[in-house]
Amino acid sequence: MLKRKIYSQLENYLRSDSHKMLIVDGARQIGKSFIIRHVGQKLFPNYIEINMEEDKQGSRLFANARTVEDFLIALSTIAGDRMQDKSTTLVFIDEIQAYDHLLTLVKFLMADGRFTYIASGSQLGIALSSTQSLPIGSMQILHMYPMDFEEFLWANGVGEYAIEQMRQSYMRGESLPEDMHNNILGLFRKYLLVGGLPDAVNAYVTEHNIVKVRMVHTDIHALYRQDAVKYERESGRKLKVQRIYDMIPSNLENKKKRVVIKDIEGKIGKRMSNYQDEFDYLISSGIALEVQAISQPMYPLIESSGKNLLKLYLNDIGLYTGILYRNNIQPIIEDNCSVNLGSVYETAVAQELRAHGFNLYYYDNKKNGEVDYLVDDTDHLSVMPIEVKSGKDYKIHSALDHFLGVPSYRIRRALVLSNEQRVFVEGCTQYMPIYYVMFLRPSATDDAQVITF
């Protein structure tokens, strides 16, 4: 079984006798159901799992379950002998968002207290925005993402001791020994090919066959597109979710990398607001990561962000490199200098930062240029710019230099991530190898974000 960081959080919740239902939110095929099932079956002798998407397409037992008694009667038809008591019975409601009324029912199920509950959702943000009566005080949401680079290292046999030594080197601002640097950088390049979707990682570690890995990517990419079509159809409106999703790779290959509104339908005069439902779907379903533009950064960044100049990245770097290179591994593994890997490295960094709890922004200023990422520097109540470099010219970054030259921004620290082994500081800019992004965290946070209602 692939080791996931979220495991301990799930175990702690299920042992806690919490009065709030934990709902694990995230894109499909990132391992939510598998890890909940694994923890739940370990801790509870009576484990009950119901998938509401399957129920909606099949027997519809829970379609009209609007009271606790309705829900329990429906549950008893498929798991009556396993419905014992709170300490021994876990009810896992998979894809809870399939029925809006179940989100309202959460409050009453938790107040009833007869059993222990946990749930998952893959389009939870969309469902919550349309739910009339939210279960305030009865629900907490834990966001889950594809496997990050540290989890990928675990899957490839890199032990906790080695990773802890790397972490200590990062914290001391030290470089890794050359042999170790080459090994970890080689694994990072493999991560660019494989990504963090569990089925793809399993295919890689068991068979080391890029064709099998790409078959997984193709299937999941098709699934995400099909889900978009389904959402468009069920909305009853002529939405362009699939079109925008399909545009993400080509947008990232452009110089600015941002969404170009007129390219969505080939119409002049459309605005970002005309496609707000589409963007909300892509971001809330977890299949795209948003990076918002900021021209005058101030801490906290959320107060100066705007959505008019939006970048979208795919949620998984493996999906992205699969679209770009298919079965050809040479551009990444052989560090082919004729191929610009800028968008590939930026996608991997976006995936890593988001999984670690950062909200994503980038700097866009007509006078000073563009910096890849801005994140809140909570230790200094400031903003930290991050520049990602895939080539050998990692010390050339005019936009970052202009950015750091603005006194009113009060920048205390900047990062440049590259393939370079050496860790060093010039001015307030720290240069470090790209794989050290695995250790970046917002201050005083865990590995995943929890939102309580």
Account of the 3D structure:
The chain is of the alpha/beta class. It contains 18 helices and 14 strands. The chain has helices at 6-15, 32-43, 52-57, 68-79, 100-112, 124-130, 149-155, 160-172, 178-194, 198-207, 210-235, 241-253, 262-265, 276-284, 317-325, 330-333, 342-355, 398-404; strands at 21-25, 46-51, 89-94, 116-121, 139-143, 288-294, 306-314, 361-365, 369-377, 382-388, 414-418, 424-426, 429-433, 450-452. It has an eight-stranded mixed beta sheet with strand order 7-6-8-9-10-11-13-12. The protein has a six-stranded mixed beta sheet with strand order 2-3-4-1-5-14, sandwiched between helices. α1 (6-15) packs across α2 (32-43), α9 crosses α15 and α10 (198-207) packs antiparallel against α11 (210-235). The protein is globular. 41% of the residues are buried.
The secondary structure category is alpha/beta
**Please, what is the average pLDDT?**
93
Distance from first to last alpha carbon: 32 Å
The share of residues in extended strands comes to 15-25%
What's the shape? globular
Strand order of the largest sheet: 7-6-8-9-10-11-13-12
